[in-house]
Automatic annotation (TrEMBL):
High-level lineage: Archaea, Methanobacteriati, Methanobacteriota, Stenosarchaea group, Halobacteria
Name listed for the protein in its UniProt record: Enoyl-CoA hydratase
Family, as annotated: Belongs to the enoyl-CoA hydratase/isomerase family.
PANTHER family: ENOYL-COA HYDRATASE (PTHR43802), IP11341P-RELATED (PTHR43802:SF1)
Entry's Gene Ontology molecular function annotations: catalytic activity
A Pfam family recorded for this sequence: ECH_1
């Protein structure tokens, strides 16, 4: 279900269950978490996450959900995977081509960049049959969208297109080939990418954030002084 292909400075992680619109079972969640977190251990600075076939991800496999004996544990399982994506040292880019639904939206929210094709659509349809996004969706949606837009999106269950997703902040940009965005990111200096992510993901008190930011900047300047000087001469 989860395919991993490593290129130079880039790992491509493919949700490969197109007959079920890449719906995720517990084992798939574990494999996805390992694929993303192992990238940093392998010194791969950028991970590209996408779906095989006409959908990005339909979220949780509803056959699994219907048979759960401990739904709270399943929700915590998805939350853990989303948190692992968010906190990974690698930059994680979601390439969304086609439908992202429910947990698929939530996994995309945990990524650092969400790049949609013009054909991408997004929805949290669970409210229609008594569910909602419990893999961190109620936490992350208001962070990336205005609260009013987030409430409208989550409460209505309606599908929105890529243009509306861009307008509301759900996606970072619209591109015909999202993989190219990840490839361009991978060409940047890995140390700088990791520091920028760490600083922007830091939700501690403002003065602590600023102190950590200054310290990280100093470390990068000292580590890359020669490169900086060479670039200045160009």
């Amino acid at each position: 279900m989860i395919r991993v292909t490593d290129r130079e400075r880039l790992r491509v992680v493919t949700l490969d269950r197109p007959d079920r619109r890449n719906a995720l079972r517990p084992a798939d969640l574990d494999a996805l978490e390992a694929a993303v977190t192992d990238a940093a251990d392998a010194d791969v600075p950028v991970v590209y996450l996408h779906g095989e076939g006409p959908a990005f991800c339909a979220g949780a496999d509803l056959d699994v959900v219907a048979s759960l004996s401990d739904p709270e544990a399943f929700a915590r399982h998805g939350q853990r995977v989303a948190n692992s994506i968010e906190s990974s040292e690698s930059i994680v880019v979601a390439g969304i081509d086609g439908a992202a639904r429910g947990g698929g939206v939530e996994l995309a929210l945990a990524c650092d960049l969400r790049v949609a094709t013009p054909e991408a659509t997004f929805a949290e349809p669970g409210v229609r049959f008594g569910l909602f996004g419990a893999w961190g969706g109620t936490v992350r949606l208001p962070r990336v969208m205005r609260e009013g837009d987030a409430l409208d999106f989550a409460l209505s269950g309606r599908a929105i297109d890529a243009e509306e997703a861009l307008r509301t902040g759900l996606v970072s940009r619209i591109e015909a080939n999202p993989l190219e965005v990840a490839e361009r990111l991978a060409a940047n200096e890995p140390d700088a990418l990791a520091v920028v992510k760490a600083r922007m993901r830091d939700h501690s008190e403002k003065r602590e954030q600023e102190a950590a930011e200054a310290e990280a900047f100093g470390e990068l300047v000292r580590a890359h002084a020669a490169d900086i000087a060479a670039d200045r001469e160009q």
